[in-house]
């Protein structure tokens, strides 16, 4: 009797025993009936005993089959739990914004998945405070967003984008602001929609007001660039959005660019990660992709 049974054979046996039907086991395992029958015969030959009794309804376990079923169930349960722990250990935790994911990050994830199709990525969205807390607690491997001021020396911020251009936008109900260059002080009499506190876009807008000595109190503070875009499209105010991220809205004339005499300062996207942390090969590969070092490999 040979007790060195292949794990795949045990999985096949378990599927048949659990379903009490060879056809259902085939559907679960995505293999042919002949392959399942051959596997069962192989196990029975190795153990030198019958494991199943055929019936009109399907198959029933013999006494020996019941003993093997109980043992196999325990083995597979332990294996599944351990594999889940390993998977969680190798999970790549990423924090970014929805718009940034759609416009910037997604192509990199696609490239990454081609090389590591079985890897697991945990993706979340947070404001600056949440990102800083997650970095401090080492709950995240990579954060992607705009530059974070006063970030600890334990982390590095790596520029991962070309120049991005914030612009003032409105819908066509603000015709008096269109088709000409305007002075920033003209904006003081208009409702402004900005990002909620905690977002780098919020700080950017507030700094724009201060640098231009504008007496502006936002009419709305909104969490989420997509929602801000919708509100501006409805004519509920003007806002600062990134030109590269609203090309479709500008092209379809849902939004219009307000031309300032002095253009807004450009911005860049950064990847925040740990300086002296040993990453898995999968995480290191993704970091290098975002650095553009392996984009074409």
Question: Keywords for this structure?
Answer:
297 residues; alpha/beta; Arc Repressor Mutant, subunit A; D-Maltodextrin-Binding Protein, domain 2; four-stranded mixed β-sheet; 10 helices; elongated; disordered C terminus
List strands and helices in order, with pairings.
Blueprint: H1 7-19, H2 22-29, H3 33-47, E1 52-54, E2 59-61, H4 63-89, E3 92-95, H5 98-115, E4 121-124, H6 128-136, E5 142-146, E6 155-159, E7 166-170, E8 181-182, E9 193-195, H7 200-211, E10 220-222, H8 225-233, E11 239-242, H9 247-251, E12 256-260, E13 269-274, H10 281-290
Parallel strand pairs: 3-4, 3-5, 8-12, 9-10
Antiparallel strand pairs: 1-2, 5-13, 6-13, 7-11, 7-12
Helix pairs in contact: 1-2, 1-3, 1-4, 5-10
